[in-house]
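DEPOSITED CHAIN:
***
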Amino acid sequence: MKEKSILFVGQCYYNHYYLSRELRKIGWQADLLNMDLNPSDQIFYHGQDYVVSRFTLYGFFKNLIFFICALFRYNIFHFANAENLRMAPFCQVPGFYKIFGKYAEVKFLKFIGKKIFYTNNGCRDGVTISSFNSWEPYRVCDICPWKNRPEICSDEKNAKWGKLRNKFCDYIGILGGNRIDYNTASHVHESPWIYCLDKTVWNPDIIIPANYRLPFNKTTIKIFHSVGNYELRSHGKDLKTIKSTEIWFNIVNRLKNENYDVELIFFKDVPNSKLKYYQVQADIFVDMLTYGFFGANVREAMMLGKPAICFLRPEWLESMRAEVPDYVKELPVISATPETAYDELKRLIEDKSLRESVGFKMRNFGLKWHASDQAALKADKIYSKFL
């Protein structure tokens, strides 16, 4: 076994995949195990080294052999996604957790001295509904379709997960603040490097295949907005989303009525390995206006050198300053609220030099903080401290 050895357990979009590729280049044995067998989710992933087998007798023994081999192959196990501190084959066996307790496999990993890392994923990861919905000035949970789905999100469920997560993990990476409840623990760290992208995959100069060309004039300002799992995440008769989709549609329609040459290019559930061909043709990215921070879409905008508008919650930025002050200081994302989004978007539409200036800063910021080659160097230092 190499001392510098890590298994990423579970996909985290494409972030863990690209981080593992770069770690290999600097001497790590770094592999990724895909724990997700849902076909519809695969559009968000860019690769894997191993995938769990479905639960059959043959699949059980195949997964068991992999787990046993992993004990001798890796020193660090890096998990992702709420309630997914688990590994096949144990999670597939009916009644296993009732007998041995939930997360029994992770308890065993800890018992034999393995180090457990975890990547935070979303608003409910370590935070109760009551606490998240107390952030001012917008009650984001009120427009979330999961608010009344206790099997997905509830105070009790989220608190139980946060407590268990904090108990088992040696290091928890988060980005964007939301430091409340279990995300205030001392081993929860602002970690931009975990949420990384490959700078060549997302490149402003990528060649666009002919069948991905957008049918608009060069003079048309193209505004990009995207939502994954849109049907599941939209809510109410207005199809509201935490991505502020309905707000952006209204704003762009208003601008069109004012004779601005603009188009909202809206995508849902497009494989993000292909989505970049549409993104690179956009002039401006627009994202969440009430949530408080950004996700993958804006990080992709950074790597493609595109200006982006998103609400940056001041309290979250302040909490980030303690660990990553330069990240907050240099962040070129334009912050806006539902009340100011029209003016901020109009300002970018009318000023080409501003779009270019912000886009240039976005690319440089992305290369510094989110490029997978730089992320691997940071990860190497952090992982090594635990070996």
